[in-house]
Amino acid sequence: MTARQSLITDSVHVNGVDLAYVDKGEGDPVVLLHGFPDSHYLWRHQIDPLVEAGFRVIVPDLRGFGESSKPQEIDAYDMRTIVNDVVGLTQHLGIGKAHIVGHDWGAAIAWMYAFLMPRRVDHLAVFSVGHPGVFAMPTIEQRRASWYMLFYQFPGVSEQLLRRNGWRLFKEIMGAEGDYQRYPRELAKPGALTSALNWYRANRSPEAELRVERNFPPVLAPTLGVWSTGDKAMLEEGMTGSAKFVKGPWRYERVENSSHWIPLDQPELTTTLLKGFLGTEKPAAMPTRRRRL
């Protein structure tokens, strides 16, 4: 990533990896989490407007992406491990409670962060990817849409096929969506493609589907779910069906004229939605714990 394409301000060693991150502004903290095959740079259109709106904005390169560490082991990308990366980063920055925003895999991490550690989440905003409870039993239509997840399961083979003939297959899968011109350059860096694909191998393999937890704690934070009509990978039912897992206030926004990459295709709308939602609702009551006698 060139200097022009990097907004990174610092890095920290947490949970066994080095995480590069952006930390700008003052006020209530907002953590923005990217997905595949992005980096913090996905959120470049939202960072400064949120800072100007009075938020402290933290945007990490999640493990395996951007300027952060890229372990090559599949089990290094278990979702609980990555959630702990975010916990470690926020603790390092002295943040106890934050607004959590995620897109794609970042949304999956945001969901898990919210229901595993409700006291650390103020508001939750998820783009494109719904609650893992919905995706635990995908419809055949969703399986067709996310066929590429199965293709990514073959270590070594997937890498060779995606790179072959000037990244032809990868470019066909991506189309002209997201930062499609930049992705091959980033994934060509040592270890980058394998680390990115390992997110799928650790969490969306057929074996992983058999291990899915069925009893999810409710999400207590006010939650905004955003899905776009041009999304070729995720169906609307994945987001609308997430409402049943949210105990706090739920809001759904359906975005027109956007691919899966809503923060890039509709940057002003994304910023407007976030500024209008974060901090505007009260969370559901926290469950009380009985004291042991």
From TrEMBL:
Domain of life: Bacteria
Keywords associated with the record: Acyltransferase, Hydrolase, Transferase
InterPro entries for the chain: AB_hydrolase_1 (IPR000073), AB_hydrolase_fold (IPR029058), Epox_hydrolase-like (IPR000639)
UniProt keyword annotation of DNA repair present: no
SUPFAM superfamilies: alpha/beta-Hydrolases
GO MF terms, alphabetically ordered: acyltransferase activity; hydrolase activity
Full protein name: Putative hydrolase or acyltransferase of alpha/beta superfamily
